[in-house]
Amino acid sequence: MDRRTFLGAVAAFFAVSPLVVKAQPATPRRIGFLGNGNSTPVSSEREAFLRNLRDLGWIDGQNVIIDYRWAEGSPERLPALIAELMQVKVDVIVLSGPTAIRDAQNATRKIPIVFVVLTDPVASGFVKSLAHPDGNATGVASQFEELITKQLQLLKEAIHNLSRVVLLHFTPYTPTVVTAAETAARSLGLTTRTLSVAGVAEFENAFKVARSERAGAIHVLPSPYFNAQRARLIELAAKYRLPAFYEFSNYVRDGGLMSYGPNITEMFGRTASYVDRILKGANPGDLPIERPTRFEFVINLKTAAALGLTIPGSLLQRADKVIQ
Length: 324
Fold this sequence. Notes:
By secondary structure, this protein is α/β, with parallel strands linked by helices. Helices cover about 45% and strands about 20% of the residues.
C-alpha cells in the first residue's frame, strides 16, 4: 500500500467511526416476570415465554433484561415482589392468576401488565372488555366458566355411579370459579361440597374430609398456587384413594388421574407477543385479550389402575393423550 492510499484509508476510518459509535445498541428494556412457584426447576411455561421472545428478537442479557421474582406458592408475598419490580423500573410485568393481577393493578395503573388467567377477566373486573381491555392490562385468558361442565361430564363418565364431588378451592382465588363449578355440577345431577384452603398446610385435612364424607371424586379448581404445589395434591389424592380431576395436563403427566383444559405452556408462550408489541410502543389497553382454542383431554391409566378404576374405552378413544 503506498502512502497516499494509506492516508486515505485512515481518513476514511475516522470519518465513519462516529457513525459506528452512534450505531451501538440502546439501553436494554426491562421485563418483570412474576412467577407463582419457584425458580427451579425451570418450568415449560417460562421456557415457552423466553423461546417466543427470542423468536421476536428480544434476547435476555442483550437488548432486554428479565427481572424474575418468585412467590414460592405464597400469595401474601405478591405485593412486596411487585413493589421490587417497580423499584427496578421494569417496562412491563408478566404474571398469572387473579390474585397477582389484582395486586399489580392496585400497585400501578401505569406499568403495562401482561397476564395469563383462567377465568373471565371482564367478570373479574380486570379489563373493560375482551376486544378493548382499556387500562394497563391485557393478555391471554381461558374460559373456565365454559369448561367446567365438560370437565365434570368427563369425570362422571369415568367413574360409574358418581354422585358426590368435592370441589377444592384456593381461598384467595376468585369466587366466580366456585359459583360456576357448583352450578355446572347441579346441572349434571351431582352433589357438591366445596372445601377452601389457604395454604399447603391445609391440603391434607381437605382430603381427609372428602374421604370421610365418601366423596366419589375431587375436582381441583384452577389456581396458579395449586399448580405450583401440584406434587402434594397428587400425592394426597393417591394416599386417600380419591380420583381427582385437574385443569392442566402437567398434573396428569406428574401422576394425576385426568385433565381437560387449555395448554398452559402455549398460553405463556403467547404472552411474548404482547410484550413485544408493548416494548415497541403499543398501548396494552388497545390489545385484545386472546383466548385459547385448543383443549387437551389427558388420562393416566397407571393412576387409574392404582385407584382400581377401569376407564371406559369410549373415553380413552376421545383422549388426546393416554399415559400408560
